[in-house]
Amino acid sequence: MAILVTGGAGYIGSHTCVELLNEGFEIIIVDNFSNSKPESLKRVSEITGKWFKTYNIDLLNAEGLEQVFSENEIEAVIHFAGLKAVGESVMVPLTYYQNNLIGTVILCETMKKYGVKNLVFSSSATVYGSTAEVPIPEETPLEAVNPYGRSKQMIEEILQDLYFSDQSWSISLLRYFNPIGAHASGRIGEDPNGIPNNLLPYISQVAVGKLQLLNIFGNDYQTKDGTGIRDYIHVVDLAIGHLRALEKVQSTQGVEAYNLGTGRGYSVLEMVQAFESASGESIPYTVIGRRPGDAAVCFADVSKARDQLGWIAAKGIDEMCKDTWKWQQSNPNGYRKETEVLNESNSPVRKEAAGFLVSNK
């Protein structure tokens, strides 16, 4: 029996695949490579020494997804696949709703057909909106303020309704705060398309010389240095949180939401200073106006994940920055020069190398 990982080639997905393989799970990956690179999966195989199947399929392709279930014995799904840029979601909201919501509905319909009712869903702290009081517990009312966050909130509601209709389902909703860092090997990490949307990839690209300077959005918040404070979590800690949630859904029924963060916040300037210490590089920056909807302070109450999943983040800010810098130095252009972008071709592709298989169906 295997674990199906949708979006497994992405940043969080690839790190979770490493942890799954290292703990002895068999995995199957579905990814359309719109926001990821096949090279990341070759490196997952390299790191773990394990073979796994990967299907180049979009979740909107119901026929292709059904083939994945018919060809494999699947016991649970970890669902990462989805569009994820807040700014882009404001520009093309219908694209986000179609991709994220309809893709999830098709996935759940296929799971139901094949009797697979254990699901770990990649949600987001954006479901809480920008006015939640800190530390933010899971019981906080949801009020996402952009199409990306609303798509996550809507999916959570769909999954709640699914369980109410059939209480043999077991679902974990994992609300991430701010994943950063990379695998300690430096072989896999965050590889954003274009200018990064998130703070640490932006900082690291300034440090490596790809970008000239960091834009800081506001320094007049009611915080110790005037810059916004966020809860940053090492991506490997986050990946391990998925394994603990997977264990939970395999042994219980119901729907539960869990915050995955560290339970403390760091300001933008603290992050800059930590990265300068880790890299030995100076990070030039300029302060510009606040972005609409940004909260001054946002960090998680993580007691529920600790008490119910037995999970707690173990890695600190220094390790987060050190591992990010190792990834960035080793891969200044990300995965781009070492891979083909398979989804740009309409012809079927099947490739096996170093334990890696892609099937375009």
From TrEMBL:
Pathway: Carbohydrate metabolism; galactose metabolism. Keywords: Carbohydrate metabolism, Isomerase, NAD. One of its GO terms (biological process) is galactose metabolic process. It catalyses: UDP-alpha-D-glucose = UDP-alpha-D-galactose. One of its GO terms (molecular function) is UDP-glucose 4-epimerase activity. The keyword Isomerase applies. It comes from the Bacteria. CDD domains: UDP_G4E_1_SDR_e (cd05247). It is an enzyme of class 5 (isomerase). GO terms for cellular component: cytosol. Its cofactor is NAD(+). Pfam families: GDP_Man_Dehyd. Belongs to the NAD(P)-dependent epimerase/dehydratase family. NCBIfam families: galE (TIGR01179), PRK10675.1 (NF007956). This is UDP-glucose 4-epimerase. The lineage of its organism: Bacteria, Bacillati, Bacillota, Bacilli, Bacillales. The gene is galE.
